Amino acid sequence: MTSVALYARYSSDNQSEASIEDQFRLCRKRAAQERWQTVGSYEDAALSGASTVLRHGIQRLIRDAQRASYITIQAAPSRWWQCGNL
């Protein structure tokens, strides 16, 4: 079974914390469809996607992925383009 880590983020005060839960809901749905095992969830709230430096959730995800046996990261479709910058 493929192990995946979930990542969600919203970038501004114009969005709400519900955005993160909505993203996680989509990720969990996809994981269930693909029969992937979710091994972790990471988030960054009200932070720009321009840099990963101040995004503590993505920093933890990167560190954990480097130490763990999982290499698949699942983000909501609206965030997929950002995963290429890791």
Please describe what this structure looks like.
There is one protein chain. This protein is α/β, with parallel strands linked by helices. 38% of the residues lie in helices and 22% in strands. It contains three helices and three strands; from the N terminus they run βαβαβα. It has helices spanning 18-34, 56-67, 80-83, and strands at residues 3-9, 37-44, 72-75. It has a three-stranded parallel β-sheet, with helices on both faces. Helix 1 links the parallel strand 1 and strand 2. The longest helix has 17 residues, at 18-34. Mean pLDDT is 76; it is low at 80-86.
Secondary-structure topology with pairs:
Blueprint: E1 3-9, H1 18-34, E2 37-44, H2 56-67, E3 72-75, H3 80-83
The fraction of residues in strands falls at 15-25%
The total of beta strands comes to 3
Helix segment count? 3
The computed structural class is alpha/beta
Mean pLDDT: 76
Low-confidence stretches: 80-86
Largest β sheet strand count, sense and barrel closure: 3 strands, parallel
Spatial strand sequence of the major β-sheet: 2-1-3
Give the end-to-end Cα distance, rounded to a whole number of Å: 24 Å
Radius of gyration: 12 Å
Shape: flat
* Helical residue percent band: 25-40%
Note the run of SSEs as H and E: EHEHEH
Summarize the structure.
The protein is an alpha/beta fold and 86 residues long. It is built from three helices and three strands; from the N terminus they run βαβαβα.
